[in-house]
Amino acid sequence: MTIKIVMDTDPGIDDAAALTMALNDPQIEVKLITSVAGNVTVDKTTKNAQKIVRFFNKDVPVAAGAKQPLIKEFEDAARIHGESGMPGYDFPEDLPKPLDKSAVEALHDTIMSSDEKITLVPTGSYTNIGLLFSEYPEVKDHIERIVAMGGSLGKGNMTSAAEFNVFTDPDAAKIMYQSGIPITMVGLDITMKALITPASLSKLETMNETGKMLHDIIIHDGDNSDEGIAMHDVNTIFYLLHPEAIKTQPMWVDIVTDGPAIGETVGDIRGAYHDGKTNADVCVDIDAQAFNDWFLDEVAAITKP
Ligand code: RIB
Ligand code: CA
Q1: Tell me: the pLDDT tens digits for 289-305?
Q2: 3-state class of 49 per DSSP?
Q3: Residue of 220, 232, 242, 274 marked catalytic
Q4: Pfam families in the record, alphabetically (predicted)?
Q5: Whose CA is nearest to atom 10 of ligand 1?
């Protein structure tokens, strides 16, 4: 029984790595990929998603999404992901055309036509998700779970309070967290622990064609330290396949939508202020070694056609 997912992405180096895992793991069926403005503009995130699909010769549709957040001014992360969003590797240029429908239309059609509930995996800002739930609320009953990279119970990475995906579009994040759909919050609390170590990175380079491609783009990721490079978005796929390696805590999560803490995810960590109600399972710890081992094993198992 495969997990049927839709990935809503802003490739983005770590998005590209997450797409690689999702497109190639036999336990996952990617029904659709949608792009959104985030790390770079949506024309670039769309093209980057197509490059990954083409690199693996997968027959998965890509639909272009929102050009800017619902209300907040768009601010990219090109300083982290480079001007192209996915530097360092010469991908094939003969790309398949994106669907001639918007991400929201494609999400609606894919979700409503699926014979099984879909798991939504957003790894960029949640603008497309906010638009989808506003325009087509009926899709909510056809979504199994949202496994979203974003947020933090601790420090942010855009401000001391806010993580990039939520900071980019806090109003869309608020719509998502108020949707009533089960959510797994894959935030910086674990993605800044499960770093790809220098040792893992050097193994990738000589492993196979996929490892070489990932190595060549990951070494350009600005989210790095001596300990390793953060592969934030890949943690969503790791969670889907190995939830036993991640500790979660159910709690109510609110989104700050204005003021100096805009984009903060505020967790009711003691369950004291929402009558015991919760709206998310927040990832609070991860086996970082298991993540590195899994990352290498997944890539080693990929044989490109
Ligand atoms: O804060 C990390 C998130 O912002 C990741 O999704 C990364 O790709 C960027 O979009
Ligand atoms: Ca991303």
Answers
A1: 999 999 999 999 999 86
A2: helix
A3: 232
A4: IU_nuc_hydro
A5: 124
Residue 165 Cβ inside 6 Å of ligand 1? The answer reads: yes
Domains in the chain with CATH codes: 3-300 (3.90.245.10)
The pair of structure tokens assigned to 273 is 């202020």
What confidence tens digit (pLDDT) does each residue in 73-126 have?
A: 999 988 888 899 999 999 998 998 889 999 999 999 999 999 999 999 999 999
Find all residues with CB under 8 Å of 84, minimum gap 6, and list them.
Answer: 40, 44, 48
- Taking the centre of ligand 2 as the mean of its atom positions, its distance from the CA of residue 125, in whole angstroms, is 8
Nearest-CA residue for atom 1 of ligand 1: 164
Give the atom of ligand 1 at the shortest distance from the alpha carbon of 163. Answer: 1
Tell me whether residue 232 is one of the annotated catalytic residues: yes
